[in-house]
Amino acid sequence: MSEAKKMTSSRRHHLKSLMLQIAAGWLEQEAKDIAAAREAHINELCPAPDMSADQAALMEICKKIYAQIDTIDDARYDVEAKVQKTDKEIEDLRLKVVELAGVKKPALKKVRMSADAMLQALLGGKHKVTMDLRSNLKQVKKEVKEENTEAVGDWRKNIEDKADRKKMFETS
């Protein structure tokens, strides 16, 4: 047996809670960093407009902003179309991989079940369907054929005729 002492559950619980607190602090700091980076990026690309100018200058600023919005929307549309195209290509390649690999069919298990039990399983318990397959079969009566004994004749005579034919082939 090992000489190392096992950690008590209270100590383990305390360490786990400390780890979770540290991880939560890291997540909060990471969220703050992301928000600050986003704010800096927005301030860099879109500085605050100067509102101290007259109306004509403000109209010009609005036109520039709308022109930038149009170019950004065009770029966003192009990127979305490219992403959709690549997603479709990826899906097509996945389907090709599945087709090439082939679908492995599981081995079928032999199930012993009567026709009535199968129908009840398929249709549910509320349907009472009985399927007596033998009752649906046609009844066929066997007819006894009477053989014509006169037409057959004597079997010895037939054998002698065949022996004569055999001699014909041997001599020729």
Question: What structural class do you assign from the helix and strand content?
Answer: mainly alpha
Distance between the termini: 104 Å
Total E-strand runs: 0
Kindly state the mean pLDDT as a whole number?
82
Shape: elongated
Name the helicity range. 55-70%
Q: What sequence of helices (H) and strands (E) makes up the elements? A: HHHHH
Report the total helices. 5
Report on the structure:
The protein is an all-alpha fold and 172 residues long. The protein starts with 8 loop residues before the first helix and ends with a helix. The model has no long low-confidence stretch (mean pLDDT 82). It has helices at 9-45, 55-101, 115-123, 149-152, 155-171. The radius of gyration is 47 Å and the shape is elongated. The protein has 5 helices and no strands. The longest helix is centred in the middle third of the chain and has 47 residues, at 55-101.
What attributes does this structure have?
mainly alpha, 0% strand, 5 helices, 172 residues, single chain, 66% helix
Outline of the structure:
With 172 residues, the chain is an all-alpha fold.
Topology:
Blueprint: H1 9-45, H2 55-101, H3 115-123, H4 149-152, H5 155-171
